[in-house]
Design a protein that fits this description.
The structure holds 2 protein chains of 2 kinds. By secondary structure, chain A is of the alpha+beta class. Chain A has helices at 41-49, 71-74, 91-100, 110-123, 139-152, 169-186, 197-203, 221-226, 231-236, 327-333, and strands spanning 3-12, 15-25, 30-34, 56-61, 64-65, 76-79, 157-161, 189-194, 206-211, 214-219, 241-248, 251-254, 257-260, 273-280, 285-287, 294-302, 307-313, 321-326, 340-345, 349-352. The longest helix of chain A has 18 residues, at 169-186. By secondary structure, chain B is mainly alpha-helical. Chain B has helices at 19-48, 52-61, 63-96, 102-114, 117-128, 135-140, 149-160, 162-175, 178-185, 190-219, 222-228, 238-247, 251-278, 280-285. In chain B, α3 crosses α7 and α5 (117-128) runs parallel beside α11 (222-228). The chains are: A alpha+beta, B mainly alpha. The interface between A and B is medium-sized, with 28 and 22 residues.
Chain lengths: 354, 288
């Protein structure tokens, strides 16, 4: 199903949660709403679900206005952050709930409901626990019950609020892969909210980066990671070194390399001297002898794992610069704390300071 | 809340006091309970049976005593269900929704707790009495509220007003709205959501609130005393009847009726204990 979000505005008292936000989600897509807390991502998800209503703007499901329709009428599968399982019902009754509340004339026969629930529970690999109560399940199992319950009503879209937020790291990773597989098999349009960039980048087809109730960037994981549209996206997604610099007539020298400044909204960078920030990813720092390279002193090396993290002190920069090297390259260079090295930036991007 | 919970894990050991300390603490508690709860209860029954079983039965079979029992049941029978409905509605509104005047509503619910029951009774006299604000109008309509059963029911309702709501509001606030939202998103309508999700989650608190409400409705003295007029056999509830018998030095009859009231309290407690024992596993599961 195509979901169109059109100029949505939402206020809570004096706080603007969403500021005229638009977004389109394509059929079968798995989209992540990524942002820090307070960015409005959960509010947006709840408005799409119909649990919350926008002050202005429209929500279209397959072109039809869903704005006045209540959550129960939108046929959305919503998975809550804390699962919101019905504590007093068994797993089976939890999953059956959406089928049992259907008006009698359209309701399936009890035997069919039970059969359907068992099919769903097999899908989430929990059929053997159908008689348990939610309090007797682990976090990951509860999450899967919540998912099966949401899927029971054959939703047109699956909405997940911080689906892995309350789980420990190992379970989270497993469940993430499992959800991706399930999504691919079912082909259901899905949107999930997360504040975990790794989760968004690994799981989603497209990532919507949000901040202060507005969208900073929409793109594939590669796009948002490799070519962030704004300083916020740079800093929110992955590690980055931020350097203060002076932009002169739209460009600046970063460690000997000439970088053209960009603006967030595509307007021209003002001519003359303006303050700016340069962004360099740690893995874009090269250890090289070429002419433009700058001197630096190695302050600390953390070499466990496939990449080595190196902290560098450089003249004129008040904080340490972080660099990352593949393990092999690190061994070749044999870097040690206190050593003098020459470094250059493979690529850097510059934005005028606000 | 007053529900007990057995320790099933081994973590208690680190917090266990020495045998002597435990013995002293438990002993103190037992002495206290014996002196202030068990002893009075025993005294009530021993006084009631002081002149033998026959005198006890006679005191209770007295038509005036039976009328008092009946009136008490009527007052409780009307005010408890009404306060049950009101309490659930009010706590539902307060715990699950945001609206203007919410804090005013919470304060109003607490009012009967902070006002002396005698004042509560007086308010009704001032409103509905012969010289009261609405008195002449009520008289012209030939409706009597004060010194009649309606006044007693009203006074009882006022005094027992907060019991159910006070029990439910914190419980419902703690449970939040996620389960209700989940139910709505699965297609349940408002009533289905309430009956299948909210009600099962609050049923223990609700039961407890109703039991407390009932105990107070049957035992209320002050407010009812003001509006009753003490017409024997007509507007006397059990507590009022006990008081009259007592002031007439009719000890056996006074304690006999008092023993009925005390028995009601004991039965109430036993019923609660029995239900908890019967549905204990469900209780534990619903707290997960």
């Amino acid at each position: 199903m195509v979901i169109e979000v059109n100029q949505i505005t939402k206020r809570f008292d004096s706080f603007a949660a969403l500021k005229g936000l638009s977004l389109q989600v394509h059929p079968g897509e798995l989209v992540a709403l990524l942002g820090p807390s307070g960015s409005g991502k959960t509010t947006l998800l709840r408005i799409i679900a119909g649990l919350e209503f926008a002050d202005e703007g429209r929500i279209l499901f397959d072109g039809a206005d869903a704005g006045d329709r209540h959550v129960g009428e939108r046929r959305v599968g919503f998975v809550f952050q804390h699962y919101a399982l019905f504590k007093h019902m068994t797993v089976l009754e939890n999953v059956a709930f959406g089928l049992r509340v259907v008006p009698r004339e359209r309701r399936m026969a009890n035997a069919d409901i039970v059969k359907r629930v068992h099919t769903l529970l097999s899908l989430v690999q929990l059929d053997h626990l159908s008689g348990r109560y939610p309090s007797q399940l682990s976090g990951g199992q509860r999450q899967r019950v919540a998912l099966a319950r949401a899927l029971a009503i054959e939703p047109r879209v699956l909405l997940l609020d911080e689906p892995f937020g309350a789980l420990d790291a190992k379970v989270r990773k497993e469940l993430r892969r499992w959800l991706r597989r399930l999504h691919d098999e079912m082909g259901l349009t899905s949107i999930f909210v997360t504040h975990d960039q790794e989760e968004a980048l690994e799981l989603a087809d497209r990532v919507v980066v949000m901040n202060h109730g507005a969208i900073e960037q929409v793109g594939t994981p590669e796009e948002v990671y490799n070519t962030p549209a704004t300083p916020f996206v740079y800093e929110f997604l992955g590690n980055v070194n931020r350097l203060d610099c002076q932009i002169e007539n739209g460009a600046v020298d970063i460690w000997g390399a000439r970088v053209t400044a960009e603006t967030q909204d595509g307007t021209h960078v003002p001519s003359g001297r303006v303050a700016g920030h340069a962004y360099v990813r740690p893995h874009d720092i090269e250890f090289t002898d070429n002419a433009s390279a700058q001197p630096a002193i190695v302050r600390h090396v953390a070499a466990a794992g496939p990449t080595a993290r190196i902290e560098l002190e450089m003249a004129g920069i008040p904080h340490l610069i972080e660099a990352e090297l593949p393990r092999q390259r690190y061994l070749e260079l044999a870097l040690k704390a206190g050593q003098k090295v020459m470094v250059a930036a493979r690529t850097a991007r510059v934005f005028p300071a606000k | 809340m007053a529900f007990g919970r057995a320790h099933t894990d081994g973590k208690v050991a680190a917090l266990t006091e020495s045998v002597a300390v435990r013995a002293v603490l438990i002993g103190l508690a037992m002495v206290f309970i014996a002196a202030f709860l068990v002893l009075p209860l025993v005294a009530v029954f021993s006084e009631a049976f002081a002149k033998g079983f026959g005198a006890y039965v006679d005191a209770i079979k007295d038509p005036i005593a039976l009328a008092a029992v009946k009136l008490t049941f009527i007052a409780a029978g009307i005010s408890v269900p009404l306060n049950l409905i009101f309490g659930v509605a009010a706590s539902w509104a307060i715990a699950k929704f945001e609206f203007r005047g919410k804090s005013v509503l919470i304060t109003l619910i607490d009012l009967p707790f902070s006002v002396s029951p005698v004042i509560a009774g007086l308010i009704y006299v001032l409103l509905f009495g012969a010289q009261g604000l609405l008195g002449p109008w009520l008289q012209s309509m030939d409706v009597q509220i004060i010194f009649a059963v309606p006044g007693i029911v009203l006074a009882t309702m006022f005094v027992t007003f907060p019991f159910v709501a006070r029990e439910l509001i914190p419980l419902m606030q703690e449970q939040g709205t996620e389960e209700e939202e989940a139910a709505r998103s699965l297609g349940a309508d408002g009533w289905q959501t309430f009956r299948r999700v909210t009600l099962p989650n609050i049923k223990w608190g609700l039961l407890y609130g109703v039991l407390l409400c009932n105990a107070r409705a049957m035992g209320e003295f002050g407010a009812v005393s003001v509006v009753s007029g003490h017409i024997r056999g007509v507007t006397n509830t059990m507590p009022l009847h006990v008081e009259i018998l007592y002031s007439e030095y009719n000890m056996v009859a006074a304690f006999a009726v008092a023993s009925l009231l005390a028995s009601l309290a004991v039965v109430t407690l036993l019923a609660k204990g029995g239900l908890e024992w019967r549905y204990g596993h469900e209780l534990a599961a619903s707290r997960g």
